Amino acid sequence: MSQSALKSSPELVQGVRERARPTAGRRFADVAEKSWRPLALLVACFAVWWVIAAAELVEPYLVPSPAATLDVILDKPDYLWQHSWVTTYETLLGFVIAVAVGVFAAVVMVYSTTVEKTLYPILLFAQVVPKIAIAPLFVVWLGFGIAPKILIAVLIAFFPIVISMVTGLKAVDPEMLQLSATMGASPWQTFRKIRFPASLPHLFSGLKVAVTLAVTGAVVGEFVGADEGLGYVILQANGNLDTPMLFAGLLVMSLIGVVLFVAVEVAEQVLLPWHASRRDGTAVTTY
To answer: Rounded to two decimals, what is the model's pTM?
Structure first.
């Protein structure tokens, strides 16, 4: 059917849109289709873990059983919750700061070639330096409080945000920018209406990477010097050869990263319903 025919028939266009819009059942089926494989892999990993522990292929003080790890989580929920909240707070604060600074730096770099050529090598150098190596220096400078942990989380999460945002801002169709300039749009209007919306898919890709790295950064900071947080829990358990608690801390830390990743994924679905990655796979082509 020709495009002119579609334009002349609003009811037909509306019907096509309604058929292309995913229903609740289709969304559930899509979620189930995407989830069963990773869930099956997790179940298989836990089954292997249980078999190794039950058959005593490894000493219990090296690899505790899933039951022993679960008992620790159930016996000390307040203890784990208290330290998990500290790590989550450090992660979220570091992530938010990294997003604000990273987006601002990306915008400045895109609109200023001089700044990009000056700042980009420094960012690359800062990224390749192992954060665990400079974490003790932050403790010396900032003390044993929350500041060093947040700073390390910012440094680890900052780079993927900057790179993804710069890529998104540069990926805008040049013809759109020329059209905007021809119609008399100001640089701010072009950024707000064209550049920034077009960069959001790339930005969210970087955010999903950055939020999980922020968890790692917070825990790395706690390894160096802390009296609370999951990093502290893991170090204490390691020193006492309490492997069930160590495994419990690792599981909780992983759960925090997964929850934060899912939160960013949900935010992407809410804010970018128009993007191709958010469609249900039903393509409607007109000729």
So the answer is: 0.82
Measured between alpha carbons, how far is residue 87 from residues 92, 93, 139 in Å? 9, 10, 17
Burial of 127 (0-12, 13-18, 19+ CB in 10 A): middle
CA 17 to CA 19: how far, in whole Å? 5
Residue with tokens 């919750």: 81
**C-alpha pair distances (Å), 115 with each of 110, 190, 249:** 8, 21, 42
Residue entry with tokens 């800062």: 126
Task: Calculate helix-pair angle for 77-111, 243-271, nearest 10 degrees.
Answer: 40
Model confidence over 14-66: pLDDT tens digits? 554 445 455 556 655 665 666 778 788 888 888 888 888 888 788 888 888 88
State how far the Cα of 274 lies from the Cα of 52, in Å rounded to an integer.
47
CB 6 within 8 A of CB 274: no
Distance separating alpha carbons of residues 169 and 164, to the nearest angstrom: 9
